[in-house]
Fold each of these.
Amino acid sequence: QCEKMDLKIIQSLLERVNYGASSYVFSDKLQYPSYVRTISSNKDLIEMIIHIIRWYGWNWVAFLGSQHDLDGLNLFNKYIRNTGICLAYQEGLSLNANYSQTLKKIDELNINVIVIFALPQYATKMIKAAIANNIQDKVWIASQHWAMNKQLPTEPGIGKIGTIIGITEKLLSFNEFVYKARGTTDVGHNDRAESEVQGKNKTCNQVCDYCSLLTAEEIINENPTLSFSIYAAIYTIAHALHKVLQCDMNECHKNTVVKPYMLLGEIKKLDFLLNGRHIEYDDHFDPTISFAVVLWRTDVNPPRFVMVGSYEKHPEITFTIDNSLLLWHNNGSVPFSNCSVECEAGYSRKPEGFHSCCFSCEKCPPNTYVDFSHMPHITITLAKIWLAAHWEKKITKAHMFECDLETTIKEILSPQMKVGVVRIYSKKTRYLLADCSDALTDLPEDAMEATLKTITLPEDFTDFDSQLPDLNTIDVVDHFSLNQCRTEDITLKENFENHFLTMERIGNTSE
C-alpha cells in the first residue's frame, strides 16, 4: 500500500502537458499540481457560449451534454445564474438514448436554440435524428468537440434544420506544410510508390508507415480542432527545456540534470508568440483564450466554415461577432428563442410558471413605473423623478417644482432614481438662474446696483425701551390658565354601558 501511495505521489509530480482534455477538474491544482494543458477548459467554452446567447437576446435554450461527463452541463447551470437565461431543457446523451424523443420534447417547449456540448459521436447522432425527424429552423450551437466536423456538413438535408454555429480554438493552416511533407503541391496527388519510399524514411525521430498511405487531402480534411493545441504543447516543452538547460543560439548545457519541478517552474513563467498567438499560462496552468466563432455554410458546395466572430482574453476580454456574415435561416432575421415577448411601455411583468423568463404583461397602475433595476419588477410612486432619469425632455417646469424632494429622497433606492434627483436639482438651479437673468433685463441700466440703504433693514429697536411690568401685580394663576381646557372637555367619558364581555358570552359566534 505504501508503494502504491509513493507511486501516486511521484505521478502527481511528473510533468504532463495535455492537448486534448478540457474538463474543468484539471484546473484544480490540489488534485493535479503538475497538470498543464494547451487546450481551453470547459469553463472558458461555457462562458463563450453564454456570450453568444446573450449577444442575441435569447433566454429560452436547451443544453444537451454527455451522460458520462456532466462537466459542461454543471458549469452552464452555474454561470447562467443572474443572466436572465432560462435552461428550458437539459439532458445527458448516451449512444443508446432516444434522440427522436429528445427532439420532440424540445420542439413541444418551443425552444429554438439548442446547445450540444458533447463528443462527436453523440452530436452526429443528434444532427442526423433532427434531419430524419424534419426538425426545422433551429439554432444549433456546437462545442469545440464537433464544431469543425468535416462529415456532418455534407449530410443530405442538413440545410433544413437551421443555423449551425460552432466554437473552436482559432485555427492555423498547415496545408503548405502537409503538401511539402507529402512531397507534392498538386491537389489530389497520391503517388503510392513515393509514399511507400517516404514511409521508410524517418520523420524527426519516428517511423510512421501508416501515415505514408494518406494523401495530403485526407490529412487536411481531418478535424483540425486539436492542431494548434498539439503544436503549442510541443513548443511549450521546448521553450521550458530551453530555459532549464540555459540554451543560447549555439548550444545548451546538456549536463544539467532536468527534474519535473524545474520544467513546471519555467512553464509558469513562459510568455511567447506562436504563429501570432500569445502563449502564456495562468495559476491553474490553463492557456490564454483565443476562440473563433464559425458558421457552417451548408448552402454552398462544397460546404465550408466561415469565421464570423472571436473571443479573446489577452490582453483583455474582447468578444465580437460580425452580424453581416451570419446568414440566418429565418429570412435573414435573428431567430426568436424567448419564453415570453417583452412587455411594452406601460406594462409590467406578471410571473407565470417556474421559470423567470416566462410571464404575462399587465398594465401598470397610474402614477407608477417599472423598476428594471430590481427583479421582480416593482412599482414605486416616484414617477416624476423616474421621468427625469430616463426621459429628461418630457419633464416640465411645473413638474420640477411639484417635487418635494426632501420628503421623498429617503424612499429612493435605485441609481436611476438618484440620477433623476440630481437632474431635478440641476434644472431647478437653471430655472432660478434664468428667472434672475430675466429680472435683471427688466431693470434700467442705472438700477443694476442697489444702494446699501435700500437693501438693509434699519436698526430701530424702540419696542424694547418700555419698562417691564411689576411681577407682583400679575395674577399668575389667571395668567397661565388662559389657554388651558377643562379636564372634561378633553377626556372621553368612561361609559361602556353593556359592552363588557362576560364569561358567559365567550365563544358566542354572534359576538
Amino acid sequence: MNFIVRRKPPLFSISRPIPLLPIPACHASAAGEASASRRSRYSTAAPGEKGSPSSSSSSSSSKFPEYELPSVTWGVVQGRKERLVSRVIISDYLKSLGIAPDELADVELPSSVDIMRERVDFLTRLGLSVDDLNAYPLLLACSVRKNMIPVLGYLEKLGVPRPRLGEFVRAYPQVLHASVVVELAPVVKFLRGLDVERSDIPYVLQRYPELLGFKPEGTMSTSVAYLVSIGLWPRDIGPMVTQYPFFLGMRVGTTIKPLVEFLVSLGLPKRILAKMLEKRPYILGYDLEETVKPNVDVLLSFGVRRECLPTVIAQFPQILGLPLKAKLSTQLYFFNLKLKIDPDGFTRAMEKMPQIVSLHQNVMLKPVEFLRGRGIPDEDVANMVVKCPQLLACRVEFMKNSYYFFKSEMKRPVQELFEFPEYFTYSLESRIKPRYQRLANKGIRCTLDWFLNCSDQRFEERLQGDYIEADAPGPSFVMGGKLEMPRSHLVSDKEEDESDEEVLYRRTISL
C-alpha cells in the first residue's frame, strides 16, 4: 500500500513577516511535544530502521534545511533562501539610490526592503545625503527604533539642537551603534565630574563628538591625571575641556608628555607652563616634530637668544603653532623698509613683544606715522619702537590725548619720551593724570619712569619716602627653568616673603 506524504506550505513568507511571541514557561513543554509530533508526522524512517526521535530530528533538518533559528535582531523567522532573496532585493534598492552595498555584505540586513526604505528615509530627513551614507554605509545596519531614536533622543535631551543632529551624525556616525546606558551616559557623567557645566555639555560634544567613543577609565582619565601632576588644579580642567576638548583623546606617552618635557627643557618653569595650558589648552594640539621644534629653530635662526625663548613663549604661546618662517620673513622686510629698523632691532623688539609676528602692518604703521608727524626723527622713532614695541599696538587717538597732556600740562621736553616711550602705553585718565597731580601738589619733580612704572602700592611708598631712589631691574628667566628676581630693598615686605617664581607669576606673566 502506497502512502503519499503531502508537504505543508511554509508558515512564514517574505511579504508578511510575523513577529515572534514569547512562549510562557508553563506551555514550553507542551510546545516542545507538539513540535516533536509535527516532526514525526512528516518524517519517514529508512527501510529496515525504526523511527526514533533522533532519527526523526536529523531527517527533518536534512529534509527542510532552509528553516533555522529565528533572527535575534529582527525577530522574524526567515529561511536561508528567503534571506538571500531579501538581500538581493535590498541591494538592488540601495544601488538604485546610488548607495554602494558592498560594505554591508557581512552585516545582517532587515527582512524586507520596506524596513530598509524606512531607515534611508529617516536618515535623509535627519539631513544626511547619499554621499554621507556611502562614506559610512554601516549606518544602514542600525535599527530606527532600537538604535537611532534612543541615541538621538538622548543627544537632544543633553541639549544638542535637533537641526544639528544630522551634522552630529555626519561627524561621528559610529554614535548610532552605541548604547545609551553602557557607553554614552558614562562619558557625560565623567565630563560632569570634571566640572564641565551642564549647559556646556552639548557644545563640547558638538566640537568633539568622537569623545563619546572613549572609555572614561582609559585615555581621558590618564590625560587628566598627567595634567594635574604638572601643576594644573583639578577645578581648572573643566574650563579647559570646554575650550579645547580634544586633549581628552590624546595619549599621554606619545603626545602630551613629550611636548611638556620639550617646553620645560627650553627653560619654561612647570608652573608657568601649567598656567599657559590652563588659558590656552589648544597648545596641546600642536605637533611637536612638525610644528613646535621647527618653529623654535626658526626663532633661533632669526637671532632670538636662547635665554629669551621662555619669555617669548610665555608671552605669546601661539607662536609655537604659526607658519613662523614666512611670517617672520614678511615682518622683517616691513620693519626694515617702512620702520627703518635693522634686523637686530627687529629681533630685540620681538623678544620683548613676540605678538608683532601676527600684527597687521597697517596697524603698526599708524603709531609710527603719528610720532613722525610730531617732528620726531625716523631714527629716534625706530629706537623708541625697539625699546618699547608695545607702541605698535597703541591706538592713535589715545596717543594724541597723552601727547597733548604731556606737552600742555606736564610741559616736559620730548627727549623724555625718547627715554621712556612706555608713557604712551599707560592710561591717561586712570594713571597718568592722577599720579601727576599728586606729584605736582607735593612739588616732586621726577622722571616718567619713576612715577608711572610701578604699582599703586609702590607709588604710595615712594610718595612717603624722603628721597627718590633709582628703579630696580625687573624679573627675568634663566635657562633650566629657574626664575631670578633681583634682590632689592625696593620690594615691599609682602614680596620679600614670596619666592621668585611666585613674584614672577603674580607680577609679570599675564596670559
Amino acid sequence: MMHGQSKSRTEILSEEEIKQRAEKGQQILDSLDYFFKVRKNQVNQPEDQLAFSELMAKLCPEIATIYNYRREVLQTKFDHLGGLLTESKSIDAYKQLVKLIQSEFMLIAILLKQHPKSYTLWTHRQWMVLRSQEIDQLISSINQDNQLKLIEAIKQEYELCSKMLDRDERNFHVWNYRNWLSSICAFGREDEFTKKKIEQNFSNFSAYHFRSKFFMKNYNQPENIIERIKSDKILEETELIQQAIYIQPKEHGVFLYHRWLVGVVQPFGVTKVEKISNNSVTLQFNRAITNVENSFELFNNENALKIINVKVEGINVIITFEEQQLNNLKIRILNQIYQNGALDTMISEDEFSKFLIPSEIDVTFDNEGFKQTNTIQQEFQGAIHEINKYLDENIDFIKQVIEEEKENRFPYIQILYLFQFKLRTQKLIDASKSSEIVKEALQHCDKLKKIQNDHQAQFLFEFWSQF
C-alpha cells in the first residue's frame, strides 16, 4: 500500500498465458508497423481514418505519433464543419461538430480510466479543450437567436478531475491538468477544492502544492508590497495550516506547507557595505541573492556613476564602476516586486520570496577608512517590523506544538527553519541581536539530536554552529 493505493501483485503466468501475451505483443508490433507506413503515406490511407486511429490508440495508448495523426484528421473535420456552420448556419453541421467533440472526449475518458497517468492522453485532452473553446467562439459569433447551445467543455473537465482525484488523490497528471484548466478559465473554486482535499488527507502533498500555486495567484495581485504583507489572505492561510498541524502534528506535509507559507513574506535587503575601492563596492545582503543587475544606482558627490558590472557571490554583490576618486558615495537599492519569474529580474534562493527592500546607503571617507549609514524607506521599515511580528507569532505557535509533541522531530526541525527566517529579518532591524537567535537555535539543535540524530539534525546543527 502506497499513498492509499494498493500495489499490484506480481503475476505468475502459465505457459499458455505467456504464449498468448507473446502473440498479442507481435500483433501490436505488426499493427504499429502498418500504422507508421500509413503515417508516411507508404500505403493507401484507410477509408475511415478516425476509426483507424481510434483502434491504434486503444491498442497503443502511449504512442504520441498516433495522437498527432488523429489530431490532424480531427482538425480537418473541425475546419470543414466549422466552415459549413459559418457559411450556412447549418444545424446538421452543428450537430456533427458537437457529436465529434463529445465522442472524442468520451474516448479519452475511457482510455484515461485504464491509463490515468498517460502523458499523451492528457496532452491530447488539453488539445481538445482548446479546440472546443475555439468552436464555442465560432458558435457564439453566429448564434444571434440563441438556437445553438455552447459546448462549454471546461465545466465537465473540472468534474472529471474531481472524480479521478477521488480515485487517486496524488495523481500529479490530474493535478497538473486541473492547474492548467485554472490558468485558462477560473471556474473550479480552487480554494474550496484544495481545502477539501487537504481535510480529507493531511498528508496529500499534491493538494498542498496545487494550493500554493492558487494562493500565490491571489497573493500577488496587489502591486504594493505593503498591502500584501498586511492582507488578510496570508493570516487566514496561516490559521488554516496551523489548525492542520494541531490535528496532524506527525504529518510532514503540513509542516512543509507552513514553512513555505511563512517564507512567502521574507524580504531581501542590504545589511552593510563589506568592501570598497575606487572602482568597486561589495554589498552584503541578509540572504543569498541572484539576478539583481538592475537593482542599483550609484552616485559620487551627487554625480551618477556608470555601473560596468554586477557580480553575485552568495550573500555578497560586487558592483564594478568607472574608476575615480570617491568622496561621498551614495548607493541606492531599488524596490522590485517579483511574480513567479514574470519580470526580467528575479530574486531566487527561495522561489517564493517576492521583494527587495529599498534603501539608500551613504558612505563617507576619512583617514581610518569609511563610515556607512543605511536608511530604509519608512513604509518599508514598518513592513519589516510587521514581518518580524508575524515570524514571532509562528515561532511561538511551533513552541506550543513542541510542548505537546516533545518526542516529535518535525516541530523541532520547523522551528530551526523559522529561526533562519527570523535571523534574516533581524539583520535588517538590528544585527546586534542576532546572537540571541543563534543561541536559542543551537539549544533546539541539541534537543533535536537527542530525539533523532540523523543527517538532517547534523546538517541543521552545522548550519547554526557557523554563526
Amino acid sequence: MASALRTGLTWLLSALHDPRHVARFQELCGVRGPFTGNRAGARDSGGGGGEKVEGTQRRRPDREGKGKEQDVNGAVNGTANGAAGESARARPSNGSGRDGVARGPLRKNSLTGDVGHQFVISNRFLYYAFTLGTELGNELFYISFFPFLTWNVDPYVARRLIAIWVWVMYLGQCTKDLVRWPRPASPPVVKLEVFYDSEYSMPSTHAMSGTAVPLGLFLLTYSRWEYPFLPGLTLALSWSALVCVSRVYMGMHSVLDVIAGFLYSLLILAIFSPALEAIDTFNLSSIYAPILIVSLHAILGLFSFTLDTWSTSRGDTAQILGTGAGIAVASNLNHQLALIHDPPASMLPMQAPPLSLGLIGWSLLRFVLGVVMLIVTRAVMKALTIPLVCRVVGISSQDVRKARQHMQVELPYRYIVYWTVGFSAFFLVPFIFSCIGLS
C-alpha cells in the first residue's frame, strides 16, 4: 500500500514537472515560438513521460574547483537555464502577421544579456493580463505599492506586510538554491521572459510573493478596515491566481513549481503571522532593534551567498534583506520621534474616506513626489556604491557585470543601496512630507 502510494505520488510530481504541460498551456493561450508545432522535438526535450523529479541535475566542477549545477539538457545555473538553441534566437520585434503579433521578451537576461527568442501572440488579452500578473511580482511593483500603502493608506499594515514579504522571499530564494531544479526546457517551452532565466526554478518565488502579499494584506486589513469579507477574499485570491498562472504562461515555471510556491507561502504565513505582533512591537520600541535587525539581515545574506555558485538570485536576496532592514530601522526611528502615528484601538475598525478630487489629488502628489525621491536615491546610491565597494575589496569596476559576480561586491552593493531605499521610503520621504505640509 505504501509502495503504491509512493509510486503514484512520484508519477504525479513528475507529470506536474513536465515542461510539455507548460508548452500545451501556452499554445492553448495563443503563444507560439519558432519551434511550436514540432512535437517530436518537444517529446525529446520533455524526457518521454515527463521530467523526473529526482536526478535532473548532476554535479560538475568548474576549473576553479567550485561546483555548478547542470541539468540533463546541459543548462548551467548562471548561464542559460533551460534555454533554446541558437537557431531559435531572434531580436525582439513587434511586427504583425496574419496569425498574431510577433514579439520578443520585454527585458533581456539580467546576467547574460541574452535577448531571448521571438514568439507570436494570437491572444493579446491573455498576453497583457498575464504580463500584468508577472509584473505584480517584480521590483517596479513593490517599489510603488509598499510606499503608496505607507504614505496614503496605513503604515501599520505596510510595515507588517513587508515583514511577511521579506521572510517569504528570503526562504523562497534559499530553497531554490537548495533544491536546484532548472527552468522548464526550451523547446518545448516558449520563454516569454528571460530576465530571471539564470535562476533556479523550484519553488516559484513569484507565486510565493503573489500569494503572501494579497492574502497577508487581506488578513491584516480585515479587522482594521470596514469592507465586505467575500469581495475582499475574492480579490486576494484572484490576485494570487493571476500571478501564479502568469509564471506558467511566461514559460518560467512548471505547474509543480507554482503549486509548491503557493503551498509554501501558505505554510510560512501560517507560522509567521502569529509572531507578527511581537516582532513589530520589538522593531518599534526596542533601542537594540536597529543594530540587531541590520546584523541579522546581513548574516542571513552571507548565509544565502554560500548556498550555491553566483547567480542573479544572490543579489535579489541581498536586495530583499537590505530593504527589510532599512524599513525596520526607519520604523523604529519613526516611533521614537513620533513622526508616523498608528491610530488608537478605539478608532478600529476604520472606514475608508469618501473619494473626492482633493483626496485623489493629494494622494497622487505624495505618491509621485515620493517615488521620484526613491528613484533618485536608488540611482545615486548605485552610482556611488559599486565603485566604492570595488575599491574597498580590490576588484576592478571596469566591467560592472563581472564585478558583481563576486560576493564581496554584490552583497554589500545590493544591501547598502536597498537599505537606503527602504529607509528613505519609511523615514526620509515622510519626514520631507511633514516639513512641506503633505503628511
